[in-house]
Every structure is written in C-alpha cells, then in structure tokens.
Design a protein that fits this description.
1 helix, mainly beta, single chain
Amino acid sequence: MEVICFGAMREYLPPAADGNSVDIEASEGATVGDIADALGAPRHLVHAALVNEDPADLSTSLADGDRLTLMPHYSGGGTRRAHG
C-alpha cells in the first residue's frame, strides 16, 4: 500500500521514504489508525485522511493496493491589512 504524508505527518515516514510517500505492507483488516500507529504518528495529528482519494477516518478499513493520504491540521497564512 502506498502511504502519502503531508505537512508534519512527513516526519513519521521511515528513512526509506521517497519524498513524501512510502510503500508499506499492511496486515489484512488494518485501518487508517493502525497505519498511523505503525508509522509512530500520534493519531490526534491525523486531521484528514483519504483512501484512494475518498474521505476516510481512523476506523476506515484498508485493502491491499489502497493509496492512503494522511494530513495534519494546517494553519498559517499571513494577516492582511486594509489600506486606505
């Protein structure tokens, strides 16, 4: 299964990762939460997940060949000042 991580989730990818993704073996019946655990990522950091580009949650079951995307909460941006 391919796991793709964005933002702070990238720090939990193993050294063998290629950029922001890695192929991993998952046991039958594994869930999104199980994969986060296997990566060593705290579950509370998973703000959003996609399985094959469909929204998922930590309890979503995965199948061989799935593509899992894990995303943390994003914050940032600048403040905008009005001129005039």
